[in-house]
Amino acid sequence: MSILHCPACRAGKIRFATRTSLSDVLLTGLTIYPFRCQLCAYRFRTFLGRRTPNPRRSFDRVEVSFPVWFKSHRSSPASGVGHEGVIENLSIRGCRIRSTASMRIGSRLELEFQYSDNSVPVAIEEAVVRSIADGAIGLRFTKLHRSDERRIRQLIDVWLPELLHSV
Prior knowledge:
Blueprint: E1 14-16, H1 22-28, E2 32-37, E3 43-47, E4 62-72, E5 83-90, E6 94-98, E7 108-113, E8 122-133, E9 136-143, H2 146-159
Antiparallel strand pairs: 1-2, 2-3, 4-5, 4-7, 5-6, 6-9, 7-8, 8-9
């Protein structure tokens, strides 16, 4: 078995992508599937030679436990109204936070987290609340600096195992 690699960045951390177009569905009959790199987000197709189910999520999340501070995107810096929580899982496009703060789906947040005592905080300029369940807030990142995105990719690269093997 050999590991499939992303044609853009050569990482072995790829997974099946959601079939979004008619051509994706038709090519599935020939066992040519869409894939997405978990590090650079590049989407590509390749021949797999076997049938597989359609995935629900495009990016795997790695289990983490990082303290996080977040606030509403519209609140002023002087207001000091913020919340604390713990990031439970992380991907290059989002995360899940455990917190007692009450949020609404569609709310926009700013957040910062540190993955070690010696690290500079990673800042997410804007994240949208996508789900809320049992004290967990699901977020999708919509704005972040390239340097912070690069640091998240490095974290994912370290903690996410090589995902797919070809037949």
